[in-house]
């Protein structure tokens, strides 16, 4: 099997995990999680330079990943578990009492892979900028990645951070925006238009790339391009066009599945579309 | 025990922070600093000039500054953020709550121009709610030193502890009366004078007012015990309990709203352990206004006379 085919199979299993996790506790955010499964798979299973799966909070000598739009925690947890940071069976505790898998990512219980809490939106780009500065101070040539939502771009702090990262030439920082054009209340363009997002970041002093975030081949190619662009005095932003709910037909093409859980019947329907490739937990 | 303080001069507490930070820069290469366009006001120039590669100007963007500081800890840096107390707390509460306190990040939030003594800028800048906001956050240590020497010592001490800290200081020149190069033990009350009739517990700029009040009380025949609480959280409960067991009443004094401040923390401590009458010297549920620091302290009831009056009232409330 080709490498890409294997990554696609991993992404399908992560999608299965997402809908099963959200169904089991009847709460959580499946839509954005499904839409980002390919990006997470590409980052963790192929692209990022990680020191194995022995998690170290300081992450010296390895690439770091931050999730700013913490509500898509299911895709992150499933990715981390499938990668081997913790037991896949722990996905069964998602959002339940006494779990390390909080509704939104948290560090308190020491879940491997999480370096800062997120959920209240707009804060991840700042934290990633700080972590990238520390890498520079430590002469650590590895990179810092941060994923944000498109609706999240409405938060003012994002633009403070965008100005800061460009001003301080934080060129070991690669941002990715999940541009699915959906947010809780509707389409992003109807709720609060982002207008020309590429021009916005470019005018702030960033290198901007675009990709189809649901095409594994293109995701890998653009991530590689972003890595090559690092170290050239500018932070890099990838605008990733995705489909909320990708992989489950009735969850796609709408904002409806941002934050609701499937019923038993809907779960069955969803799982019919998502092959069990790596074995369910 | 006699009063063990001696006034040696007048200096602003923010300069104590600036000196402490500059010394930290020399002693610890992991100390980094961030400032939101107030480098001069925060007295951070010495650090910024000596260690430009470890100083990050954030511009007028405090929310981002808190997030960047949180990120800088990942990889072992010890960030000190600097801006006015209002912009260090109220403006960025959610950023501190999620990215720093909940995430347990080793960020030192250093806040100048706290309280009414900011003076002429008026109520928009005179935050009187910051201690309350910060002490409510789990994981947060809250410190409000009383003079230049203590602020400098506190600045150096917080770099040695792991975890988020809110360090509050002020703008005006105030009496210097604690020793140079003192040991600063976080969470440990300082006894300035023992006494048997009333315990006066003060923090920040009000410690000097308490010392002034003590002399007047002595003339009125009241023997006051004076405790400087520089650490609001964690509170030195045993020092408080031990003192009120002896004196039977307490006065708290702070440049802060009565709601949510040191007085409330002390009341919670005594209510649980050894209930005694308590009088509160603090701002009574109002905003400040423009004026000279001394005028404002008088008008808003946080002056020496208010401490004296409160102590007399507390003594009178003790069961005879």
Give your account of this protein's structure.
The complex is a heterodimer of chains A (281) and B (320). Chain A is an alpha/beta fold and 281 residues long. Chain A has one domain (3-272): Thiamin diphosphate (ThDP)-binding fold, Pyr/PP domains (Rossmann fold). Helix content of chain A is 40%, strand content 12%. In chain A, the strands form 2 sheets. In chain A, strands 1-2-3-7-6 form a 5-stranded parallel β-sheet, sandwiched between helices. In chain A, helix 1 (3-25) packs antiparallel against helix 10. Chain A starts with a helix and ends in a 9-residue tail after the last helix. With 320 residues, chain B is α/β, with parallel strands linked by helices. Chain B has 2 domains: 10-176, Thiamin diphosphate (ThDP)-binding fold, Pyr/PP domains (Rossmann fold), CATH 3.40.50; 190-317, Rossmann fold (3-Layer(aba) Sandwich). A 7-stranded mixed β-sheet of chain B has the order 3-2-4-5-7-6-12, with helices on both faces. In chain B, strands 9-11-10-13-14 form a 5-stranded mixed β-sheet, with helices on both faces. In chain B, strands 1-8 form a two-stranded antiparallel sheet. In chain B, helix 9 (237-247) crosses helix 10. Chain B is globular. Chains A and B meet through helix 5 and helix 6 of A and helix 3 and helix 5 of B.
Tally of contiguous helical segments of chain B: 12
- By secondary-structure content and strand pairing, the structural class of chain A works out as alpha/beta
Largest interface: A-B, 40 and 32 residues
Unreliable segments of chain B (pLDDT under 50, ≥5 consecutive)?
A: none
Assign the CATH class of the largest domain in chain B: Alpha Beta
Helix content of chain A: 25-40%
Domains of chain A, number = 1
Mean pLDDT of chain A: 97
What's the arrangement of strands in the largest beta sheet of chain A? 1-2-3-7-6
- How much helicity do the residues of chain B have? 25-40%
Mean pLDDT of chain B: 97
Shape estimate of chain B: globular
The CATH superfamily name of chain A is: Thiamin diphosphate (ThDP)-binding fold, Pyr/PP domains
Order of helices and strands of chain A: HHHEHHEHEEEHHEHEH
Radius of gyration of chain B, in Å, reads 19 Å
Number of domains of chain B: 2
N-end to C-end Cα span of chain B: 25 Å
The general outline of chain A is globular
């Amino acid at each position: 099997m080709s490498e890409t085919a294997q990554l696609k199979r991993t992404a399908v299993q992560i999608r299965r995990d997402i809908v099963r996790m959200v169904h089991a506790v009847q709460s959580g955010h499946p839509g954005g999680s499904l839409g980002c499964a390919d990006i997470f798979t590409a980052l963790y299973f192929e692209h990022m330079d990680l020191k194995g799966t022995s998690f170290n909070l300081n992450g010296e000598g390895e690439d770091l990943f931050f999730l700013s739009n913490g509500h898509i925690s299911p895709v992150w947890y499933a990715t981390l578990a499938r990668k081997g940071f913790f037991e896949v069976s722990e996905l069964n505790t998602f959002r339940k009492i006494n779990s390390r898998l909080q509704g939104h990512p948290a560090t308190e219980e020491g879940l491997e892979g999480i370096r800062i809490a997120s959920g209240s939106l707009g804060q991840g780009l700042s934290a990633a900028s700080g972590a990238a500065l520390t890498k520079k101070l430590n002469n650590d040539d590895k990179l810092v990645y941060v994923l944000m939502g498109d609706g999240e771009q409405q938060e003012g702090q994002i633009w403070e951070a965008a100005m800061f990262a460009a001003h301080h030439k934080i060129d070991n920082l690669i941002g990715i925006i999940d541009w699915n054009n959906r947010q809780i209340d509707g389409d992003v363009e109807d709720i609060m238009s982002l207008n020309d997002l590429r021009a916005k970041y470019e005018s702030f002093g960033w290198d901007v790339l675009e990709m189809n975030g649901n095409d594994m081949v293109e995701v890998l190619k653009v991530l590689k391009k972003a890595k090559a662009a690092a170290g050239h005095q500018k932070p890099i932003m990838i605008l990733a066009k995705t489909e909320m709910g990708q992989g489950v037909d009735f969850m796609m093409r709408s904002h409806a599945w941002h934050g609701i859980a499937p019923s038993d019947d809907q779960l069955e329907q969803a799982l019919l579309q998502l092959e069990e490739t790596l074995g369910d937990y | 025990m006699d009063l063990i303080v001696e006034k040696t001069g007048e200096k602003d507490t923010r300069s104590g922070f600036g000196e402490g930070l500059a010394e930290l820069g020399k002693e610890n290469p992991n100390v980094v600093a961030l400032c939101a366009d107030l480098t001069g006001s925060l007295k951070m120039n010495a650090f910024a000039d000596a260690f430009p590669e470890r100083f990050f100007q954030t511009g007028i963007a405090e929310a981002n500054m808190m997030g960047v500081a949180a990120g800088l800890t990942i990889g072992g840096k010890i960030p000190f953020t600097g801006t006015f107390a209002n912009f260090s707390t109220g403006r960025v509460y959610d950023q501190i709550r999620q990215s720093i306190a909940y995430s347990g990040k080793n960020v030192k939030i250093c806040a100048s121009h706290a309280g009414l003594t900011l003076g002429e800028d008026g109520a928009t800048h005179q935050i009187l709610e910051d201690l309350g906001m910060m002490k409510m956050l789990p994981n947060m240590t809250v410190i409000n030193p009383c003079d230049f020497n203590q602020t400098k010592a506190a600045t150096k001490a917080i770099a040695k502890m792991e975890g988020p800290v809110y360090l509050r200081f002020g703008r005006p020149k105030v009496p210097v009366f604690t020793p140079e190069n003192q040991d600063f033990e976080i969470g440990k009350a300082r006894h300035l004078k023992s006494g048997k009739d009333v315990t006066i517990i003060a923090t920040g700029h009000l410690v000097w007012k308490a010392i002034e009040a003590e002399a007047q009380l002595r003339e009125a025949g009241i023997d006051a015990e004076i405790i400087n609480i520089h650490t609001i959280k964690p509170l030195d409960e045993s020092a408080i309990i031990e003192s009120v067991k002896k004196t039977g009443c307490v006065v708290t004094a702070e440049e802060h709203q009565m709601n949510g401040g040191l007085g409330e923390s002390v009341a919670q401590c005594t209510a649980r352990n050894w209930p005694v009458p308590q009088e509160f010297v603090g701002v009574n549920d109002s905003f400040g206004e423009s004026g000279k620091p001394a005028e404002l302290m008088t008008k808003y009831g946080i002056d020496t006379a208010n401490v004296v009056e409160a102590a007399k009232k507390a003594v009178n409330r003790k069961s005879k």
